[in-house]
UniProtKB/TrEMBL annotation:
PANTHER family reported in the protein's UniProt record: ACYL-COA SYNTHETASE (PTHR43201), MEDIUM-CHAIN ACYL-COA LIGASE ACSF2, MITOCHONDRIAL (PTHR43201:SF5)
Source lineage: Bacteria, Bacillati, Bacillota, Bacilli, Bacillales
The entry's keywords: ATP-binding, Ligase, Nucleotide-binding
Stretches assigned to the AMP-dependent synthetase/ligase domain: 14-359
Pfam families assigned: AMP-binding, AMP-binding_C
GO biological process: fatty acid metabolic process
Species per Swiss-Prot/TrEMBL record: Bacillus salacetis
Top-level taxon of origin: Bacteria
Family of the protein in this entry: Belongs to the ATP-dependent AMP-binding enzyme family.
Name used for this protein in its record: Long-chain fatty acid--CoA ligase
TM stretches of this protein: none
Example of a GO MF term: medium-chain fatty acid-CoA ligase activity
Domain AMP-binding enzyme C-terminal intervals: 409-484
């Protein structure tokens, strides 16, 4: 039996004149009726090019209306949307395109040269402006692709910091249940507006808020880049009620005079995701009387899995809250049983919002899925009241002299120093201890900070084995393509000098 999944058309039928998407640069806007018409027109073009169910359709663009055009066109005909990370090196991009083997690729005009150099065969659609679809014929009958819930709708490639990126296949079910779970757990409505600055080739830009807001009937404001001053102005101009940024973005935002002066009268909550958030950011927002909370997810899981009331986030800084309505969570200790109160273990997730499998990678899929639970590779703990805290990545845990050190605990304390801008703590091989703890620190402008001062500061709070053996002051911490601190790059830098 065919699975009717075209919610874009249904939303258009219900509220055709409601504003769905706004381009923050050009000020163009589109209603739900126009959004549906654009997707239908593009779907017709795909069919004319011989695209069939399961064929991959790639997009190489900064945040733009074309993301919704391509995703919703794929939804209508059973194709698979593959957003490409335009920040990848040529070799990395070549690997992803070869792995996905798209039949069609949409490319922004500024990137035509780079896309043309790819050694793959695909039909290219140039995206010159928001009106790139105007010359295409109106869509006729698109037919019935005969979809099932578990059929793939999107394939988003993971960061690949430890090897080649993996294509996480998200089904119609995955994306819809993430949206439903987010809407009912976070109380999203058609009155909500969000600003999407996080790159939409990343699940945080596409699935964390953009798709749930549209399913709920709200409005998504698209920005092609994150510029902190402009972001403050856009949040106010478009009366945004909820927004997601990564911690690095919040660091940049909080340092602007525009943020310090702003009131944000329409904002219900600021949400942080992508990486554990430094506790100093909580204080920045609470001191302005702004609601702030932290979320948790990853490409393979939603990315939304928890809910916390901003009031609880104030009293439990660092907590991501409790599981959302339609997913299950457990923490498994190193011994293999469920972890007790405040015991650290690996976080397992279960629910219809999870990915289906890794593209062309059966071995990694088997490793990730066991007995219906997805093994996240993240370490977490749960307090006596049922609130969850993300401790860090399992692979980032440091074992020094037989003792476990969780970098986030050390980072939160160092980051609280008045002179510290950002910090990253890693473990490196050591003959005596197995691993030793080291810290990389950036210092706030106009301030000085010596390693001896940081060591003395750490002794006030941290157990001796948790105190970094070395402190490295650098101008800027390296970041991944989506703004996370790149600890692998820091390890490589140390390898070059030791």
């Amino acid at each position: 039996m065919s699975y009717e999944i075209d919610w874009v058309k249904s939303r258009s039928d219900l509220f055709p004149e409601k504003c769905a998407v706004i381009d923050s640069v050009t000020k163009d806007s589109w209603t739900y009726s126009e959004l549906n018409e654009r997707a239908s027109r593009l779907a017709g073009l795909f069919l004319a090019q011989g695209v069939g169910k399961g064929d991959r359709i790639a997009l190489f663009a900064a945040n733009h209306i074309s993301y919704f055009d391509f995703l919703f066109a794929c939804l209508k005909i059973g194709a698979v949307f593959v957003p490409l990370n335009w920040r990848l090196s040529d070799d990395e991009l070549q690997f992803v395109v070869k792995d996905a083997a798209p039949a069609v690729m949409g490319v922004q005009s500024s990137s035509i040269g780079q896309a043309s150099g790819l050694q793959e065969d695909f039909y290219m659609i140039e995206i010159e402006s928001n009106s790139y679809l105007d010359d295409f014929p109106a869509a006729g009958n698109l037919g019935d692709p005969g979809l099932a819930e578990a059929d793939p709708l999107a394939m988003i490639y993971t960061g690949g910091t430890t090897g080649h990126p993996k294509g996480a296949v998200l089904s119609h079910r995955s994306i819809m249940w993430n949206a439903i779970n987010t809407i009912v757990s976070w109380n999203l409505t058609d009155k909500d507006t969000t600003l999407t600055c996080i790159p939409m080739f990343h699940t945080g830009g596409l699935n964390a808020l953009s798709i749930p807001i549209l399913v709920a009937g709200g409005t998504v404001v698209l920005s092609p880049v994150f510029e902190p001053v402009q972001a403050v102005r856009d949040l106010i101009e478009y009366k945004c009620s909820i927004v997601l940024f990564v911690p690095t973005m919040y660091h940049m935002l909080a340092g602007t005079m525009d943020f310090k002066k702003a009131k944000f009268p329409d904002m219900k909550v600021f949400l942080s995701g992508g990486a554990p958030c430094p506790l100093g950011i909580y204080h920045t927002f609470s001191s302005k009387g702004l609601a702030f909370k932290e979320g948790y997810g990853l490409t393979e899981a939603g990315p939304n899995n928890f809910y916390i009331n901003p009031r609880d986030a104030l009293s439990r800084p660092g907590s991501v809250g409790k599981p959302m309505l339609f997913n299950s969570v457990k923490i498994i200790s190193a011994e293999g049983g469920e972890a007790g109160t405040d015991e650290v273990g690996e976080l397992y997730l279960c629910g219809s919002h999870l990915f289906e499998y890794y593209w062309n990678n059966e071995e990694e899929t088997r490793e990730a899925w066991k007995d219906g639970w997805f093994h996240t590779g993240d370490l977490a703990r749960k307090d006596k009241d049922g609130y969850y805290y993300i401790v860090g990545r399992k692979k980032d845990m440091i074992i020094t002299g037989g003792e476990n050190v969780y970098p986030l605990e050390v980072e939160n304390w160092i980051e609280a120093h008045e002179a510290v801008e950002e910090v990253a703590v890693i473990g490196i091989p050591d003959e005596k201890w197995g691993e030793k703890v080291v810290a990389f620190v950036t210092v706030k402008r106009g301030m000085n900070l010596q390693a001896e001062e940081l060591e003395y500061y750490c002794k006030k709070k941290l157990t001796k084995y948790k105190i970094p053996k070395n402190f490295y002051t650098i101008d800027q911490l390296p970041k991944t393509h989506v703004g996370k601190i790149n600890k692998n790059e820091l390890r490589k830098r140390l390898d070059k000098v030791t």
